[in-house]
Amino acid sequence: MNMELSRRQFMAGAGAGVAGTTLGSLGFGAIETAYADSIRAFKLTGTTETRNTCPYCSVACGIIMYSKGNLAKGEKAEIIHIEGDPDHPTNRGTLCPKGASLLDFVHSKTRTLYPQIRKPGSDKWERVSWDVALDRVARLMKDDRDKNFVAKNTDGVTVNRWLTTGFLAASATTNETAWATYKVVRSTGILAFDNQARV
Amino acid sequence: MTNSWTDIKNTDLVVIMGGNAAEAHPCGFKWVTEAKANRGARLIVVDPRFTRSASVADMYAPIRQGTDIAFLFGVMNYCISNNNVQWDYVKAFTNAPYIVKEGFDFHDGLFTGYDETKRDYNKSTWEYELDADGYVQADDTLENPRCVWSLLKKHISVYTPEMVERICGTPKDKFLKVAQMISECSSPTKTMTSMYALGWTQHSKGSQNIRAMAMLQLILGNIGVRGGGMNALRGHSNIQGLTDIGLMSNLIPGYLTIPTEKEATLEVYMSTRGFKPLRPNQMSYWQNYKKFFVSFQKSMWGSAATAENSFAYDWLPKLDLPSYDVLRIFELMHQGKVNGYICQGFNPLLSAPNRKKLTAALSKLKFLVVMDPLQTETARFWENHGEFNDVDSSKIQTEVIELPTTCFAEDTGSLSNSGRWLQWHWAGGSHPAEGRNDASIMAQIYLRLKALYEKEGGPVPDPIVKLDWRYKDPAAPTPEELAKELNGSALEDITDPNDPTKVILAKGKQVVSFAALRDDGKTACGCWIYSGCFNEAGNNMARRDTNDPDSTGAYSTWAWSWPVNRRILYNRASSDINGKPWDDSRKLLWWDGAKWTGYDVPDIAPTAKPDVVGPFIMNPEGTGRLFTRGMMRDGPFPAHYEPFESPVVNVLAPKVRGNPAARVFKGDMEQFGDAEEFPYAATSYRLTEHFHFWTKHQHNPAVMQPEFFVEISEQLAKEKGIKSGGWARIWSKRGSIKGKVVVTKRIAPLTCDGKTVHIVGIPLHWGFMGETRKGFGPNSLTPYVGDANIETPEYKAFLVDIEPIPGPVA
Amino acid sequence: MANFEFVLPPAPTSNVKPIFGEQDLIRRSASTITPPAKRQTEVAKLIDVTKCIGCKACEVACLEWNDLHHEVGSNTGVYDNPPDLDPDIFTVMRFTEWVNPETKNLEWLIRKDGCMHCEDPGCLKACPAPGAIVQYSNGIVDIDHEKCIGCGYCIKGCPFNIPRISKVDHTAYKCTLCSDRLAVGQGPACAKACPTHAIVFGTKDDMKKHAEGRITDLKSRGFRNAGLYDPPGVGGTHVMYVLHHADQPELYAGLPSNPTISPIVELWKGAVKYVGLSALGFAAVVGVLHHLVVGANRVTAEDEDNAGKLKQGRS
Fold it and tell me: Do B247 and A108 touch (CB under 8 A)?
């Protein structure tokens, strides 16, 4: 993805005046001088840019994430700043208060970190490995499906449905995840399938 | 949205009603400020609260929550009475001239065919009169008393400005000003846009609220034009996509539907789909239904879906009920009929109604699996958090498994925005610990299930074992692989129907669009409306070309929109019956004598003659529906119904409580409160500082609005002795909460049917996890009832009482 | 596309050359300097209160950009949160519910408060620490925390009551107009974020021109007193407002109608000049301050009181 290309197109196409003319008239971008004592060093120098979309509302504002480390090159990447993508036709670099604080989502103190299981009657979580957690999920699903799957209804019509387990899909996963989810859920015969469209 | 965010700049009048775009969609609202600043557009806000949208509006009118239909029909009545109708549009592009069957009528708040015991209608009279060829009979003069136009005029005649004031509490002068401003948009060169959201959907007649505005927009000729449209501002970043891909109990991707158990075979299933045109020469696009359906089945089960087994039709589950929506699922859970529940994101403990019932329901599960990037309340419903989640963990026998997922910044793929733009994004950060992306988690659950069925067997294993799962790494399908499946491809060489020797699409190639799909099993396509998103031209969703010829706001080379990169739905209606643009300054699509041309992809066959084929090709009539036949459960026209919990009785039909066709579960009716006991009209909403229940996990949004509060008027505060910044208890028939109080002029009491109605505003956001102060949410109070058609819970209108209480001891 | 003239460019990530610095200083607290021969084009931030939706994006963008950590507070019966400027937040929204007596309509007036970057900065004039407050030729008034002594005189000197002293490092904090962003050709973080382009940034001349267009539009909507707030009492400001009721700035949470620098500060300015404060040691500075403001013969309690009123714009 050639970001510079699209940026130039945008400047040409939509006419971003400040960038093209006004800031230029301020003499920005040319004179080499030292920072003044009161001015903080520019914190994004040397970071990697990645284009993303705000995960909140459906305006789907373009954002730029600035990271130390480049994920695309297989490095571990820590995002240090997020702001609006000025190239984006809808938000033009702007963000609302939620979008402007997306960095706090990435580094939230209450993110989920490891698979955990809470046993019946317990008042605490127990950390488990992914294998233990996923094996358990598959086992619970299969046991319930095996026990309660309805292949035919009372009229003898093939209905192949499983009503005793439900699946609630999200609202911010990608279309690709949604499709993978759809395939898996439908293949089991689950009908109690819904998403967050209503609330 | 029929249009896009960037198109709003083309409008002359913005009506924000049933939403609060400035607070919930600030960067989309930018385009309202654009239209205002550059076109001199005006902004009207109709809302029970003086919102931040209202703070920059040219006209604000208050309305009692749950009375939008009365208001909108009042406006429609005003427009028709004052001859502010775009007649050429109405006559050519709507079903106004069509004749409705004898017997259809409306009395005492009920349409013909009501069965009180079933809370449902026999809809046989809600239909057109057809002629011998199966075509609709019409009266182009609109004078026939049984034509849709005559019936509509009669139906809305009761909604006078006086009646609007009586029902809605909107002062007559303010209503008339709004009606007059809207009526001006009947001019072909003046356009209004409707921006709405959950303020309309979260009612027991939510779908009909939207219908009412859509009808008004049709009458004004504002559908299909630049700066017009019905613009649903979806709440979440990809709820449009999840709905498009059909992650709902009764859907197949692309708004196809899951069969019911009455449809035992593919032939029976198809017999009620693929509608035949209802007008001569009309294109009825659903006639392609089978192509989309078979291609979907092939994408599910690949070579195991054959013509011989009706493309694995049996492997789709068959519905015994209209849907298993979230309200029904929790109802069944509450009855002890559900053992397992898997939440991929979502936080139902805070977002579904009647929290007490939800906790009881979750406690009856055998297992609950939660996949989320954040520590949700739902995953911790069993954990005691004092008064904020007062449960006894030892008594809850549910096994809970929490799986950490990546967040947006760590994931690659596309999201579909409100304007139907599919935009690709790239991962840029590493998960802080062991989180995995949702698609790989689903894959790994799937592979385990498949292995178990292969090893142990079990009932009907084939749909699982034979699911088409040919990804390079089956445990981690890539976003690109999945996107290509959604787009669709040729499974065999596709040849020209006129020349079988000519291969028009070679086996293995991506289809260019859904036009290439087949009903013979030679193509696969996960979601037909997404076909074109990732074809042989590459990943169109990742396009970042910002060109916008003539600055129409279309941005057709930025990302990709469904269907077939169309930016404005029904765009053929932007030109008159002869294909000439209604407004030369806002041209979108026009007939050049041989074909449709313009700034957008035509929403009609490019060579379909303008005076022959109607613009609304997804309807077999080809016209927009003012009368919806039997498509809606609660009536072919909207009608004013009070919320189930209302401070006043329905003045038009005093015997009718709520929406007569809305589903109410046993036990829930008894949990509705009455105005005598709960005198105040409550409503719920979110604030611009917050996004649902997520941002309380983020520091700065928590700083911006740190603590739960409710909002009341100065008058109610005085009456109750409640001080701003003080504490109050708020309770409904279903629960009780407490919080700080903001006393404000922005929520003023209304006078409805001679009675003072005080409003209590209850923002949502707070819970017992995250960085904000712990708090309650409206769902501890809200009633367990949804919209009659799609079961969206009635969060916007319910009854509470309020009293001052001393604050907690510090 | 009028507003998109103000779309700000993407942030650079490679090494960028700062475009203004020490050589562009036109004022330096408690110091005498020779201003540069050529003044840079003056910049300004224009806050169009009539387009502002009070969403607080600017507040959050400011916190994020400046790596500020504000504590989670409580609700006090209003939307204003955090309730006031402090060392951990340089801008806040001030909400006023006002019923217009002429139209009887409710108006929700929302003003983004923060440093106005006065052309004649009272804070700088009041500051006794050499070089702790500086003014660049483009109009930015900035604090150098290395040099600030935390005396709080800048607060007394400010007619808008803006700077706040940190309890952590005992220096004064306020909006820098994102001097670090401006130095590399970026606009301020608040202007970049503002969803409705209610905050725009550019040359002061362009901002005034843009304001004219806005005022014309507002007048067409019945706000006949719409106007620009660029108060002459402080030589104009590099943060300006478009107001619907420019005849009554006080409506907007007490925006002063005619802000001027307190006479005390002018007096103090003279003292600095004569005493040659830059040559004195810290103890002497404190002594002089104490003498001037707390125990001074020349400053009466009435003067103090007047100054207090002035800074709140109620004189």
Answer: no
Domain boundaries, chain A: 1-33, 39-110, 116-198
**DSSP-assigned beta bridge partners for residue A97:** none
DSSP string for residues in A56-111:
SSTT--EEEEEEES-GGGT---EEEEEEE-TT-TTTTT---HHHHTHHHHHT-TTB
Reported confidence tier of residue C303, pLDDT bands at 50, 70, 90: very low
Cβ–Cβ under 8 Å, residues A30 and A12:
no
**Architecture label for domain A39-110:** 2-Layer Sandwich (3.30)
Q: Which chains touch A (3 or more CB pairs under 8 A)?
A: B, C
- Residue B598: which residues within 8 A CB-CB, separation 6 or more? B571, B574, B587, B588, B589, B590
Non-local (6+) Cβ contacts of A5 within 8 A are none
Is there a contact between B744 and C97 if contact means CB atoms under 8 Å apart? yes
Q: Which of A27-41, A57-71, B595-609 shows the lowest mean pLDDT across its residues?
A: A27-41
Average per-residue pLDDT for chain C? 87
Contacts of C56 in chain B (CB under 8 A): 688-689, 704
Residue C293 has pLDDT above 80, yes or no: no
Element spanning B137, H or E = none
- The residues that bridge with B425 in the sheet, in sequence order, are B413
Q: Is the pLDDT of residue C117 over 80?
A: yes
Which of B36, B55, B740 is nearest residue C110 as measured by Cβ atoms? Answer: B55
Q: Are the Cβ atoms of B408 and A54 closer than 8 angstroms?
A: yes
Q: Is the dihedral of CA A162, A163, A164, A168 positive or negative?
A: positive
Q: Which residues of C touch B773 (CB under 8 A)?
A: 72, 74
Of residues C162 and C300, which shows the higher confidence score?
A: C162
Confidence of residue C5 (pLDDT cuts 50, 70, 90): low
Only one residue has tokens 């909460």, namely B737
**E strand map for B405-536:** 413-416, 421-425, 489-490, 494-496, 499-505, 523-524, 534-535
Reading the block at residue B759, the tokens are 């409003």
Q: Which chains pack against B, by 3+ Cβ pairs within 8 A?
A: A, C
What is the distance between the alpha carbons of residues B172 and B180, in angstroms, rounded to a whole number?
Answer: 12
For an interface test with C, the pick among A4, A8, A10, A28 (most C C-beta atoms closer than 10 Å) comes out as A28
Residues 6+ apart with CB under 8 A from B396: A120, A121, B363, B381, B382
Task: Examine the pLDDT at C312 and tell me if it is beyond 50.
Answer: no
**Which helix (H) or strand (E) is C104 found in, with range?**
none
Binary contact (A180, B482; C-beta < 8 A): yes
SS3 assignment, position B84: coil
Query: Measured between alpha carbons, how far is C189 from C166 in angstroms, rounded to an integer?
Result: 22
pLDDT at B810: 60
| Alpha-carbon torsion angle B615, B546, B193, B195, nearest 10 | 110
> Residues B28, B6: contact at Cβ < 8 Å?
no
pLDDT of residue B799: 98
Q: Which two tokens stand for residue C5?
A: 């003239």
Q: Which two tokens stand for residue C170?
A: 């005992």
> What is the pLDDT at residue C185?
87
Positions in chain B whose pLDDT score sits under 50: none
pLDDT exceeds 60 at position A63: yes
Who contacts B782 (Cβ-Cβ below 8 Å, separation ≥6)? B353, B354, B684, B732, B734, B793, B794, B795, B798
Sketch out chain B's domains with CATH numbers. Answer: 5-96+159-232 (3.40.228.10), 669-805 (2.40.40.20)
- For residue B355, give the H/E element and its range: helix B355-362
The pLDDT score that the predictor gives to residue B92 is: 96
Q: Is C189 on the interface with B (CB under 8 A)?
A: no
3-state secondary structure B156-220: HCCCCHHHHHHHHCCCHHHHHHHHHHHHHHHCCCCCEEEEECHHHHCCCCHHHHHHHHHHHHHHC
Q: Which residue is closest to A118 within chain B, CA to CA?
A: B400
